[in-house]
Design brief:
243 residues, alpha/beta, Metallo-beta-lactamase, Chain A, 7-stranded mixed beta sheet, 6-stranded mixed beta sheet, 30% strand, globular
Length: 243
């Protein structure tokens, strides 16, 4: 059986492949996305799609088409899920979930966590609707890999509870600053989470997102025992090799 694989698609989008070969997309934004290599825009397969919030750099307007084409199950922030219902995505394609809940799907245990990030959905008529708070996800795989996908969020103290309960082996943390945690806060998040590995995202793509992996490393001490993996768009990380 293969180890869990993590691919950084670009900006805030990730692709995970489980030991059973299931493909999981987190916040896929492909349509006209300059930060994701064009050859990755049309994934041939997706078995599960996770959506943390409805901002357009995390939530592809063509997501209903992707779900219809692939038949993927979907786990989405509740207001985003309601919006997708209105767009005609069948309710049977969803795994309804809310913050604090967990579900077993496709040999993966998925928990929806808190995130502190005000969000909305840009509607087709040019207005903003469906205001909501973002969420994060913890994914526990059959090979022991535990991935915390924080989504866009501020630092919050209850990350230490996530460490106590779930023991994440890898944390996907935003570091851009201004709209999310910056490098200083993300370093403290890594300490609260007691995770040995961090993959930063949501930085370096827009001028306002000024945080860098180098700054994140500078805020971490050797005693923290945290390794920062600054992946380029398209790079893959073998999570089995990290343990």
């Amino acid at each position: 059986m293969l180890a869990t694989q993590l691919q950084f698609l670009g900006h805030a989008a990730f692709r995970l492949t489980s030991p059973e070969g299931r493909v999981i997309l987190i916040d896929p934004w492909f349509t006209n996305n300059p930060f994701v290599p064009a050859h990755l825009w049309q994934p041939e397969r997706a078995d599960l799609v996770l959506i943390t919030h409805g901002h357009d750099d995390h939530f592809d307007p063509e997501l209903p088409s992707l779900l219809a084409r692939t038949g993927a199950r979907c786990l989405a922030q509740p207001q985003v899920r309601f919006y997708l219902y209105e767009q005609g995505v069948p309710t049977t394609q969803f795994e309804p979930l809310n913050k604090g809940g967990s579900v077993d799907v496709l040999n993966v245990r998925v928990t929806m966590t808190l995130a502190f990030h005000g969000a909305h959905i840009d509607l087709p008529n040019g207005t903003a609707g469906f205001p909501h708070e973002g969420v994060g996800f913890i994914l526990t795989f059959s090979d022991g890999a535990v991935v915390y996908a924080a989504g866009d969020t501020a630092l919050f103290g209850d990350m230490r509870l996530l460490a106590d309960l779930y023991h994440p082996t890898v944390a996907l943390l935003p570091i851009g600053d201004r709209y999310t945690m910056g490098p200083r806060e993300a370093a403290h998040a890594a300490r609260l989470l007691r995770t040995p590995h961090v993959v930063p995202f949501h930085y370096g793509t827009y001028p306002a997102l000024t945080g860098t992996p180098e700054q994140l490393r500078a805020h971490l001490a050797p005693a923290d025992g945290v390794r920062v993996h600054a992946l380029q768009a398209g790079d893959t990380l073998d999570l089995g090799a990290l343990r």
